[in-house]
Amino acid sequence: MTAPDLISIEDFFGAPERTGASISPDGSRIAYLAPWRNRLNVWIQDLEEGSEARCVTADDVRSVLDYRWTDDPRWLLYLQDSGGDENHHVFRVDLHDPEADAVDLTPFPGSRVYSLEQSRDKDGVFTLAMNARSLAEFDLYELVIATGELTVIGESPGPGTGWSAGVGGDLLLSEFTDQGHMKISRRRAGSDDVTHVTTFDGSDYPYGVTLTHPTADGTGVLIDSVTNSDLTVLARIDLETGEETVVDSHPSMELDASRRAVEQSGSPLVFSRATGELIGVRYLGERQVIHAVDAGFAEVLKNLEALSDGDVGALSSDDCGKKWVVAFTHDRDPNVTYFYDHETGESRMLFRPYPHLDPRDMAVMTPVTIEARDGLPLPLYLTLPVGVEPANLPMVVLVHGGPWYRDAWRYTPGVQFLANRGYAVLQINFRGSTGFGKVHTQAAIGEFAGKMHTDLVDGVEWAVAQGYADRDRVAIMGGSYGGYAALVGATFTPEVFAASIDYVGVSDLANFMRTQPAFARPGLVNNWYRYVGDPAIPEQEADMLARSPISRLDDVTRPLMIAQGANDARVVKAESDNVVERLRARGVEVDYLVFDDEGHGFVNPENNITFYRAVEKFLAEHLGGRAK
After folding, report:
1. Pair type for strands 347-351 and 336-341
2. 258 to each of 166, 262, 268, how far by Cα in Å?
3. What pLDDT score does 394 carry?
């Protein structure tokens, strides 16, 4: 067996040549993201083969990652924040005037926009949620694209409440009750009366009901439901009666309500661009399954799925539902993007985002399910180096964030980079992960630095017992909650892990919760407060401190590396600073990287390259893997 050559860090973490394609409403053009001055920007190209592309945005500070077609071929919208602070503004691009500058349509300092959606009822209008009036409250606005006019159509009644657009001018109000339940109400067009529709038990929804999509006829709302099921299903709430009925489900998979399979955002539902009707539903287990709930889309889906052995990922069509652009999720050949014309049967590959990466040199991501020491099933993914005997390998346990999140079958540059350097990579969906039923998620209540961590240790023991991993050469690495887990590994079980790498991780649970933005705090009731505790209650604060790595820094005996974005709005820089300062004060060496132009995770390619170059050196020194 021969291991492939070392692939450069630049090849793994540099910008893709092209990615994120979607088709215009009229089916004549595609938009996609590609580098301009080493930052991803939006490019437009006619669909005819050989046509010339042009860059239509000009951000040379931070990559553009999110854009929208509008129903007017003149205008395109994109969102951008400042240095990773997540305060996204909406910018307008004039596609008819290449010399015109992008216009900030939401120029309110300190505010952020989310839920930017094309209006169902008005041409040339989008709706958006923004906290311009009060940073703790998000009001619903209508935005007229051509003029930039903003009008409040739903003022938030207070923190933890928010409006969304229904059909025909109706508005829907979502709010957390004092008990942490989630209530949905309705305000009919032309009326000031707000009528209660239904209330959900908040304990079943760590982040609330994440899917609330009005049906095309306006009589109901589609939700992700666990009302009578351990697994999340698609249900409909009748807006008149509040009655809940199941629309679609899978016998063994959850509705991919948080969109972990594709692009980590968006809806698990596929809608007709022409009618707004539901045509497809995504489920995620070891791999993705899409249920077609429309006969026409079923035929389209069959032909799309024949284009690749990956899973159908980001998907867009023209207004007629005839022309489609699809990117495929794959463990070794990421986001290969095709054009398909259902009327003619024509299909062709548009691009591979990383043409310099040979899928044969990438490592296979294998799903496995093991049992934790208390019998709880733990779904995991094992990635083994190519061309290397899979025995007694150095191994990295890569822990996902959240923790209300999940790992999924997909290409991850960090995983492939580690495998290329000779490491086995273990990604464990420990208790608390979402996507495997509410029993699996709720098994994490009160288990931070407890069973959530022993699940990771049990994964290590399994890999060692199977002969894959060398017990003395196992590292733990992760970001956000995964960074917390890495710090727990370094402080609670230093004998298990030969080295730990934390990026943007929590070190002090009480401080983390106290430093959340004001608008986020009402939403903590069913996740952080329920699973960890309330720092305002002394006994619970004491327990939180006992579960925090900051309280056990004297137990750090193995090498530790920390990376942090200076503008992180979720895990503030002090979470990392405090650990580094205290360890260095007692003479413990810590590798510490701070990126002044990043937030909660790193976007700019040069920063990712710098970070992983440091990871490569750190792991090679302490685990003995390959390095350039």
Report:
1. antiparallel
2. 21, 10, 7
3. 98
Question: pLDDT tens digits for 491-529?
Answer: 999 999 999 999 999 999 999 999 998 888 888 999 999
**Model pLDDT for residues 145-202, shown as the tens digit of each residue:** 999 999 999 999 999 899 999 999 999 999 988 788 999 999 999 999 999 999 999 9
Q: Two tokens at 398?
A: 């890569």
Q: Which pTM does this prediction carry?
A: 0.96
Tokens of 200: 């959900």
Cβ-based neighbours of 460, under 8 Å, separated by 6 or more? 395, 397, 426, 469, 471, 474, 496
Catalytic residue among 89, 330, 400, 600: 600
Catalytic annotation on 258? no
Residue 213's alpha-carbon distances to 34, 199, 328, 347, in angstroms, are: 31, 16, 25, 31
Indicate which residue of 213, 502, 568, 622 is catalytic: 568
- Contact criterion met (CB below 8 Å) for 380 and 426: yes
The whole-angstrom separation of Cα 425 and Cα 238 is 46
The catalytically annotated residue of 24, 63, 185, 480 is 480
Active site residue 191: no
Pseudo-torsion of CA 137, 139, 143, 148, nearest 10°? -50
* % of the chain with per-residue pLDDT over 90: 92
DSSP classification of residue 363: P
426: CB partners within 8 A, 6+ apart: 380, 381, 382, 395, 396, 397, 398, 459, 460, 463, 469
568 in active site: yes
